[in-house]
Amino acid sequence: MSSKVLVVDDEVDIVEFICYNIEKEGYQVQSAYDGVEAVEKASSFKPDLIIMDVMMPKMDGIEACRKMRENPDLANTFIMFLTARSEEYSEIAGFDAGGDDYVFKPIKPRALLSRVHAIMKRRNSQPEPDLAEVLNYSELVINPNEYVVTVGEASLSLPRKEFDLLYLLASRPGKVFTREKILQKVWGTDVFVVDRTIDVHIRKIREKIGDSKIDTVKGVGYKFVG
Predict the structure, then answer these.
(1) What are phi and psi for residue 154, nearest 5 degrees?
(2) 104 CB contacts (<8 Å, ≥6 apart)?
(3) Which end of the chain is more exposed for a tag (fewer CB within 10 A), N or C?
(4) Domain 4-124, classified CATH 3.40.190.150, yes or no
């Protein structure tokens, strides 16, 4: 079955333009024109990728992303923001809400399709779940087979990037991972992210599992204490 993409923008011409180019590549595509409709469509369609504008009526893309990330069925869905705004605070807000990537308008079809193909390739090349090791650190259990983190008796469903980042650090307790290595391992070389993206994701992880498990190595990166 072909991968599924949801395209969201309040400008009809942009939606039609993106849908046309993506459908030509064999993807299943649906569209929405505001944040409220996007949340509803995402829940029923369960796309592999959502390409979503930031500035929209009824509900903007940031709030729509937050609501999508509350849905366990969308935990592994890749969310790419589409925006004409280049301010860093907008990008940080998007990553803070659970977004994975940004594409800036005006859209270049070849660049967009290259990004989409890279995302789908990484999703489809993930190792089989039964090959993944469950990490157990006393009260903290990280299960990559179910993408669930357990802290004591509480079960948490982290967004995909938060989970992947936590799993990377926890897989080598005590090892310092540089920012460059984290970006390469978690986001890959085909995805554009701003430098503070890692900081935002680390902060969100700490809010959920506590501050004591991940140490900051100033000027270098992060390590898992265990």
Answers:
(1) -90, 130
(2) 83, 84, 86
(3) N
(4) no
Q: Where in the chain is the domain with CATH 1.10.10.10?
A: 129-224
| pTM flag (> 0.70) | no
Q: What is the mean pLDDT of the chain?
A: 85
Determine the length of the chain: 226
**pLDDT tens track for 143-183:** 887 778 999 888 887 877 888 899 999 999 999 999 888 88
Q: How confident is the model at residue 49 (pLDDT cuts 50, 70, 90)?
A: very high
In 42-100 the beta strands, taken as DSSP E runs, fall at 49-53, 78-83
pLDDT score recorded for residue 88: 57
Domain 129-224 grouped into CATH 3.40.50.150:
no
Pair 92, 65: CB distance under 8 Å? no
Three-state DSSP at 139 gives coil
Are the C-beta atoms of 141 and 134 separated by less than 8 Å?
Answer: yes
Helix and strand numbers (H, E) in the chain are 8, 12
Q: Residue 77 in contact with residue 71, Cβ under 8 Å?
A: no
Distance CA 49, CA 2 (A): 12
CA–CA separation, 123 vs 108, rounded Å?
A: 23
Cβ neighbours of 185 (radius 10 Å) = 15
Rounded distance between C-alpha atoms, residue 183 and residue 180, angstroms: 5
The answer, yes or no, to whether residue 62 has pLDDT greater than 50, is: yes
Domain with CATH 3.40.50.2300 in the chain: 4-124
Between 32 and 128, residue with greater pLDDT: 32
